Amino acid sequence: MLTDSHCHLASHQFPQQELQKIITRARSSGITRMVTLATSLKDCATNLEIASTFPEVFACIGIHPCDVHETVDDYMTELKEYAQHPRCAAIGETGLDYFHPAPEGWSENDYHKRQRQFLREHFELATQTEKNIVIHTRDRTGTASLEDAIHIYRDYANKVQAVFHCWPYNLDAAAPIFKLGGIISFTGVATFKNATHVLEAAKHCPEGSFMIETDAPYLAPVPHRGKRNEPSFTRNTAETIATTRGESLDQLAAHTEKTANQFFQFT
Ligand SMILES: [Zn+2]
Fold first, then answer.
1. How far is the CA of 204 from the centre of ligand 1 (A)?
2. pTM > 0.85: yes or no
3. How far is the CA of 115 from the centre of ligand 1 (A)?
4. What is the domain range of residue 244?
5. What is the percent of the chain where pLDDT is above 70?
6. Which of 250, 213, 19 is nearest to 221 (CA)?
7. How many domains in the chain?
8. Region 10-23: what's the mean pLDDT?
């Protein structure tokens, strides 16, 4: 019924021998598909392996912006091979993270510059492989990472569709993304009492312009807030969003599934 469009099943918070149980719980909550995102080269292999083991799981391959300093310069050779894998549904998690401080030995300037370079290279890969792209942006204050990512997206928008995941802003901030043909996705943040603007964004977001995700193991929705998140909790976020939109869960599932099918090229 529902897809968890963004989770990290290769996280050390999910012991691999527990995965079958986690996926079974997801299925019994109506989460019939999960997309697991890689954050580093090593993580790509693990995520693809998980996606090869479980028919409900698909993988995305990419280098997270917080991992660019630990990634070799010629990472693209390996990433290109992973992109050919039959269970690879899109490119990501890539993006720009101006929230976390630069690692030791890096100036903030150089760190962010390398993130922007990687983001462009991920867009190039998406273009070459005719896949879409999953983008993370985060700022300490303001929206510089979002603006920079949109600026880069603009150069590829006629060939690649981007999802800006874990949407933390109001809906107005998404206008330039929609204009480029991109979409956004909502996590459990939409259920948080201190983030009513996010739920408000989900309330008015047009059908076809958004997906639902957990970002598990992070950001568990209410009533699981503070605990380890898992794909079955997609349902809590979906129910909250459906209620605020005045839709039944089935109605919300129907259009978000259509969006996920198109974005991840599920056939
Ligand atoms: Zn993520």
1. 24
2. yes
3. 16
4. 2-263
5. 100
6. 213
7. 1
8. 97
